[in-house]
Design a protein that fits this description.
The protein has 113 residues and is of the alpha/beta class. The protein has one domain: Rossmann fold (3-Layer(aba) Sandwich). A 4-stranded parallel beta sheet has the order 3-2-1-4. The longest helix has 19 residues.
């Protein structure tokens, strides 16, 4: 994983600040993602790379959500949160079982391999 260290000194408020990219990328994708995740109920979900928990806050209304993020200081939600990344899932969650693994907006951090 790469580039996640750029958020070590960033606050949740700074991270969620709307930029021009929000209007070109995030707003259109929200129109597809939010209706989809609002239908998920009664599941145990692993949210990988949740950042500030933008989508997680919708999932926790009707589900149990566990998060994994290299920058856990960004998430202020009351959920179980592992400090780590997608390459360490088995080590982090060990024998925990999940119905759904959810992840958005994190492919930029994956190495080519």
């Amino acid at each position: 994983m790469k580039n996640y260290e750029r958020y070590l000194e960033t606050t949740a408020e700074e991270y969620d600040k709307k930029t021009i990219m929000s209007y070109f990328c995030k707003t259109p994708s929200d129109r597809k993602i939010l209706p989809f995740i609002s239908e998920i109920k009664g599941k145990k979900i692993l949210d990988v790379g949740l950042g500030t928990g933008y989508y997680t806050k919708f999932l926790i209304n009707n589900n149990v959500v566990v998060g994994v993020d290299r920058n856990p200081h960004l998430c202020k939600l009351s959920i179980k949160l592992y400090d780590g990344d997608a390459t360490e899932l088995a080590k982090l969650v060990k024998a925990e079982k999940f119905d759904i693994v959810f992840s958005t907006w994190m492919t930029e951090y994956l190495d080519e391999e």
